[in-house]
Amino acid sequence: MTNINMKIKNLVDISSLVTESTNFFDIKDKIIEKMLEVVFPRKACVNLFYNSDYKHAYLVCSNSLDYIRETFKPDEAKGVKFDFYEDYPEYIHDAVEFKKIIYIKNVFEDERAVKERDLAKLEKYTGRVVFPLIYNKKVVGFMTCFLDEDDILKDEDIDFVSSIASLIALSIEITEKNSQKNFVIDKLRSSLELISEATRKLYQNKNIDEFLVHLSDIAKKTTKSQDSVILIDKNNCKNKIFRSYCKLDEKDFNMEDTVNLLLSKNVQGQYVNDREQSKDINLNVDTYIFYKLSNESESIGVILCTDGKKYEDDDLNILSILSKQVTVAMQLYDYSEKNVKHKLIAKELNILNKQQKLIMNDSKMECNNEKELEFYHRPATVVGGDFYYAHKIDDKRVAYIIADVMGHGIVANYMVAMIKGAFKTLCYQYKTPGEIATYLNKILYDEFDKMGVFATALINVFDTERNILSVSNAGHYSPIIIDENGQVVESLNCKKGIPIGVLPEGEYHSNTFSVENYPMIFMFTDGILEIKNNAKEEFGVDRLKRFVENNYKNNKNRIVENLKKEAEKFTGNDNFDDDILILMLKNI
Prior knowledge:
With 588 residues, the chain is an alpha+beta fold. Helices cover 40% and strands 23% of the residues. The chain folds into three domains: 180 residues, GAF domain (Beta-Lactamase); 160 residues, Beta-Lactamase (2-Layer Sandwich); 241 residues, Phosphatase 2c, domain 1 (4-Layer Sandwich), CATH 3.60.40. Strands 3-2-1-6-5-4 form a six-stranded antiparallel sheet, sandwiched between helices. Strands 13, 14, 15, 16, 18 and 19 form a six-stranded mixed sheet that branches. Strands 11-12-21-20-17 form a five-stranded antiparallel sheet, with helices on one face. Strand 11 and strand 12 form a beta hairpin. Helix 1 packs antiparallel against helix 8, helix 9 runs antiparallel to helix 11 and helix 12 packs parallel to helix 13. The protein is elongated, with a radius of gyration of 29 Å. The two termini are 35 Å apart. It holds the Pfam family SpoIIE. This is SpoIIE family protein phosphatase. It comes from Terrisporobacter hibernicus.
């Protein structure tokens, strides 16, 4: 799984942990564990301040550490008590006082870290990054990440960890408010649930506009405002482009002037509950609340809500969480948006395509002296969910799968990797493709359901000794089977089941037949079928059947070349919107 995939999944998982728990101390170690799975530092800890007492810091989370964990063992629920000003270096004091992230790349060279050098040798770290935990404008603790000499934190990693720090702060707030029986808990948790769902949908639908509309609506509802807008300076240069979402763009105001006024304020966020004071942003509103969107150290836009009855610190905290989720989600998604709209991310596509190629086998596998498996895959501009994988179970059996995961990009690529891993394991546990498909669905259903996708597949087990093929069809197109006379065999169409990931208890059956007298078993995904000509007519199954009848005797290279020519002739060009994947069990 690529790091970008893991970041997305773990961000959603951590959001869910915070959403579902009322006690930070129950989930603190799990949050750190999931964060460290996707960023370079392999160690981190969390310290808290209780009751605004900044003289003492309590170490509450240190499971990823070695020396510190063994030496400073907590003897009470609130953690290990330290003298904040005596036991911690100056730069951590600065991070807390000025509410900013501080990155010390080498504690043995930076004079601000002199106090901790002995500890660094014992814990075996070289660099350290401090992330203050802030809610309601107050620092309630800090998280530090420890790096060895080979670790490098990129800007996007720091932004990602910062978003996790904001979720930790929210969890601490929920814990505190729960102990006080405060009604605001439901409001905070509800907003985070909505944010998590919106983030998940972003990666399913690949629609950044819909995502921002959704988040703007969340801001409006959770702050009980009449209107809300997200203003984004996407170019960050003289020719600024602002994109508004919601009803505010219908009002008579200059969007650029408004956002410049908000960005010029020397606070990250603010609310105003007085009509006269609200005039300072040139809007005809009674009240307003805003929070800046920040990328690294610069502001790239704002979230603005107006005409709420009365804004409070809790509303500002919600917008703070929302702003970080907007920034991080857009960064993680940015490569896909640019790919579709501007085609400027060949490097990222190359990484995903390489991953997909690693998931697939070499293009040829000799099954026995008579039959061989060969495939051809032409990925679309956007990395899709089409894949093939074959595995020799033993000397007498080969299991292989051809599948199409709904959608493109990171979610599809992530699910492809999940299917391959589960398929490879199940091949050894179950003998028939029907059983493999049934348990593949059971194992992966929750993951498919969480991501909101499904997959169609043909799962096959080939008895190489007897030339017997068993096929289980999970909502996929039936294979095109050619007999000795070069005719399509219509009577062997494999009974179709439901796609994988649709129902938790789906059952799949096996279709078994001899391939002794069938020189070609041709399988495919829908990419080739759905290419269209100028009249918007699809290539379709019938044309593909005729093509296979005319080409089954050719070798793989000739078949592929002829298929390319046929597709280009049909469409009038060589650019296709979807993957093209074909798989052939054919005579040698």
